Amino acid sequence: MQKPTSVKTWPEIEFWFEFASNYSYLSVMRIEELASLYQVKIKWCPFLLGPIFKSLGWNTSPFVLQKNKGDYVWQDMARQAKKYGLAWTQPTQFPRPSLLPMRVAAAYNDAPWIADFCRSVMQINFVQDRDIDSATVVQQVLTDLALDANLILRDMESDENKIKLRQQTELAITKKIFGAPSFIVEGQLFWGDDRLEDALHFARTVYERN
Amino acid sequence: MQKPTSVKTWPEIEFWFEFASNYSYLSVMRIEELASLYQVKIKWCPFLLGPIFKSLGWNTSPFVLQKNKGDYVWQDMARQAKKYGLAWTQPTQFPRPSLLPMRVAAAYNDAPWIADFCRSVMQINFVQDRDIDSATVVQQVLTDLALDANLILRDMESDENKIKLRQQTELAITKKIFGAPSFIVEGQLFWGDDRLEDALHFARTVYERN
């Protein structure tokens, strides 16, 4: 007799992302529906790109430092967003500071509302073209999710939560992550929104094999 | 009465590539079959990456300069090659000098044997893991294509042919190309083997619209 499939747990994908990263926007908007299709569980892993860029000797995004690549990225983003049916506005500020919403995401990365929270923050940055690193904005996002925004925001001031995001970033470096979005499945790294489907397919395939 | 379709010319994709570039290997191996599927004509545009990297202050490939990204690229290449059913060997020398075969490709970029020549050179670099920048190797490739190898190689010593590759590289810079492979369709730039299908789809779509 076969075990009922509901007893099985789903395989897991680590999803490493940054609210300041435009290609992370595509993955944040796409991952939940796709992961459900592949029957893969998402582990939300927010981390800061800044320290990783700094370790490479860069003081900002390579899309700012390399002019031709930067110009290209906005053409590519418009085409990719259209291909995936996603709204898109080229941000007037890039990369945007993202510390406060990143701290919330790190502190509540396994909350049932994490996907909704991340999509809302990303849409403010890359559709509404508005600042995301402000208490007012984050409070509104949390309130719209029917959460106790004041409680959560007060909680962000604790050392524990500040350290949590820093630790996530250090963990990303340990895992040899060099850009966002990145995906890790069974210790294998996949980089870029273009590899999301491959990473999910790999998670499902390895799981079926075992 | 409809015009017979044979009267129509096919839309064109400019394919900018480098024999030293591993992601160009994927596109060189894939493009002819795909372009035929989309009914798009390929304009083969070899160019040197070295001067473009130099203009960014780099003395070699970013895959060498950024260690984590470099380590990742070889994992990604193995997976991508497998996905596309292509043979793959991680080269023991990277990036390999490519000047002589690049000159041949630039001089004969509209020859009927250009696709075969490019695939052979790429396979020597990325499957056989052998040097490509030698008269012996290029001579063998040309001979295998039933061409007069001695005549072609002698021709590569002319100033005209040396200048041709240099001009191609300058043209690439004018077109704001910053990496390889790149594709240009109707003035729009697409970067990376991952965008090959998108570029071909765009060529076909714009053509149908007109």
UniProtKB/TrEMBL annotation, chains A, B:
Keyword match Isomerase: yes
At the top of the EC hierarchy, this enzyme's class is isomerase
Q: Which Gene3D superfamilies match?
A: Glutaredoxin
- Highest taxon of source: Bacteria
Alphabetized, the UniProt keywords read: Isomerase
EC number(s) given by UniProt: 5.99.1.4
Task: Spell out the reaction equation it catalyses.
Answer: 2-hydroxychromene-2-carboxylate = (3E)-4-(2-hydroxyphenyl)-2-oxobut-3-enoate
Entry's family note: Belongs to the GST superfamily. NadH family.
Q: What is this protein called?
A: 2-hydroxychromene-2-carboxylate isomerase
Ranges in a coiled coil: none
Presence of the UniProt keyword Isomerase in the record: yes
DSBA-like thioredoxin domain boundaries: 13-198
Against SUPFAM superfamilies, the record matches this protein to: Thioredoxin-like (SSF52833)
Gene Ontology molecular function: any one: isomerase activity
An example of a Pfam family matching this protein is DSBA
